[in-house]
Amino acid sequence: MGKLREEVKIFSEIEKIKEKRPSSFDVIGHIAIIEIPPNLEDKKELVAQVIMSLNKHIKTVLEKVSERKGIFRVREYNFLAGEKNFETIHKEYGCIFKLDPTKVYFSPRELTERQRIASMVKEGETVMVMFAGIAPYAIQIAKKQPKVKEVIAIELNPDAVKYARENVILNKVEDKVKVIEGDVKEKCVEFYGKCDRVIMPLPLGGEEFLDVAVNCLKEKGFIHFYNWGKEPNIFENAEKIVKEKMEKINVKYEIVGKRKVLPYAPRKWKVCLDVYVEKVQ
Ligand SMILES: C[S@@+](CC[C@H](N)C(=O)[O-])C[C@H]1O[C@@H](n2cnc3c(N)ncnc32)[C@H](O)[C@@H]1O
Questions:
Q1: In CATH, which superfamily holds the domain spanning 107-279?
Q2: Whose CA is nearest to atom 15 of ligand 1?
Q3: Helix, strand, coil percentages for the chain (3-state, nearest 5)
Q4: pTM beyond cutoff 0.85
Q5: CATH topology (fold) of 2-86
Q6: What is the distance in A from the centroid of ligand 1 to the CA of 190?
Q7: CA pair distance 92, 109, nearest whole angstrom
Q8: What is the pLDDT of residues 236-248, one digit of tens each?
Q9: 149 and 178 in contact (C-beta within 8 Å)?
Q10: pLDDT tens digits, residue range 165-179?
């Protein structure tokens, strides 16, 4: 009876956590990734067991123990409960993604943003996805717009590249998506002047690649630029970066869309600017 009461208490704490901070609970395939609040610090294994018993598809529970770090943007985790198998299959919008979150970046919360971008791609376009990760943008685009000409996905992390290549096959988009391992700065050169659209999902440091993105475009095209913004003017910083870069490169541009993507920290947001660019003759 005592144990049951304890479990009910923890269950209600989990519900409260979910209500207050939806960011504290992510599910990637069979893996739940949680943030333990200080008041449950000494009961985290039990919290993990309760999560598994309430969600039968969850077989592994990991605790976030660091922010995303380094060039690959991967965080550290503490294994809490279940199977010690971190490779999983995640499903979104009819796509399947194989990945190991301890080795590669992947955010299940960005599915609607990926779908938003995929919905904008038109027939016959050549699309460059810089910083491609396990290829969720590239694959959603190829699935949503089967008449896309080509989607090029460039990624530096060898583990992410391995999964991206496998995911392309799993989703049967081999004829559309080309995965390239390497640094965007070097690998994009081959595609200068060939793309209609460039996606830049690297909010931290992506601005250093804006000139490369412009070079990838044909005479005109779209760039989807990700950055961070602080309230109350969450787009201000991204707009300033785009203005300075475009003026320096000497191209005409217009911000045709602004998107609040996800909360990142208190009063801080991940944002996207959709930028139409025309190269000046
Ligand atoms: C924020 S993650 C986004 C991954 C993926 N687009 C997604 O949304 O799941 C950024 C990715 O860029 C990769 N990256 C960072 N610098 C890079 C570079 N110079 N060239 C290619 N990839 C890079 C990292 O390894 C990481 O996988």
A1: Vaccinia Virus protein VP39 (3.40.50.150)
A2: 71
A3: 40, 35, 30
A4: yes
A5: GMP Synthetase; Chain A, domain 3 (3.30.300)
A6: 19
A7: 10
A8: 999 999 999 999 9
A9: no
A10: 999 999 999 999 999
